[in-house]
Write a structure and sequence with these properties.
With about 210 residues, the protein is an alpha+beta fold. The protein is about 20% helix and about 35% strand. The chain has four helices and twelve strands, in the order ββααβββββββββααβ. The chain is globular and about 55 Å long. The termini are far apart.
């Protein structure tokens, strides 16, 4: 099993650089899907190689890559595939991706998948998109603002990348974090307050 979701400690053991593309509907009035790309660090990638290289040829063939993808697909299901989507502060449930694809390039594991909202997300109000691991085991980072994109945003809508300051986030959410820790010290959705987000602001409906 991949160790992506093991809540062993409160600091990350696995690191990945990410790209997120928000895809709009053809009429540019709602969100159609989210496209994710995660590139994992070489240390974790080498662990995956050793675990899944069944024929010991120091590479992952198509069958081995599929086994990696299937494992990730199953492991991340209960965590909504590390996706953070909110509309005016309320969580939006995303459908499970139809498939997870993996590749191994320059000694790094690459994971790709696309997911759709369970209910349509209209471009109205404040909409946030991000990626986070509620167990703190995996740190998924957007190294550049350009790695969070949306094309064809209608006039009247704005977009910006928000990178919360950890000290400020803790101070602003101290009581909630404390309560969450005592309720479940192994992992909590409150880790989302540290997540880098792509924030869209559009005029309200009507």
């Amino acid at each position: 099993m991949l160790a992506l979701t093991v809540p062993a400690e409160v600091h990350p053991h696995v690191f990945a650089e990410a790209r997120l593309d928000v895809v709009l509907s053809p009429d540019h009035k709602s969100v159609k899907s989210l496209r994710h790309l995660w590139r994992f660090d070489e240390l974790f990638s080498s662990t995956v190689l050793m675990e899944f290289d069944k024929n010991s040829d120091l590479k992952l063939d198509d069958a081995e890559l599929k086994e990696v993808a299937d494992t990730i697909f199953a492991s991340l299901k209960e965590y909504d595939y590390f996706q953070l989507v909110t509309v005016n502060g309320k969580d939006v449930h995303m459908k499970a991706p139809s498939q997870v694809m993996t590749n191994f390039e320059n000694n790094q594991l690459i994971v790709l998948f696309e997911s759709e909202p369970a209910t349509p997300i209209k471009l109205a109000g404040k909409i946030d998109f991000g990626v986070y691991d509620p167990t703190f085991y995996t740190a998924i980072d957007f190294t550049e603002d350009a790695n969070m994109t949306v094309e064809g945003l209608p006039a009247g809508c704005t977009q910006k990348v928000v990178r919360p300051d950890p000290d400020t986030a803790i101070a602003e959410n101290q009581k909630t974090l404390t309560d969450a820790f005592f309720n479940d010290p192994t992992g909590t959705d409150m880790s989302k307050i540290f997540a880098t987000k792509l924030e869209l602001n559009c005029p309200p409906e009507g």
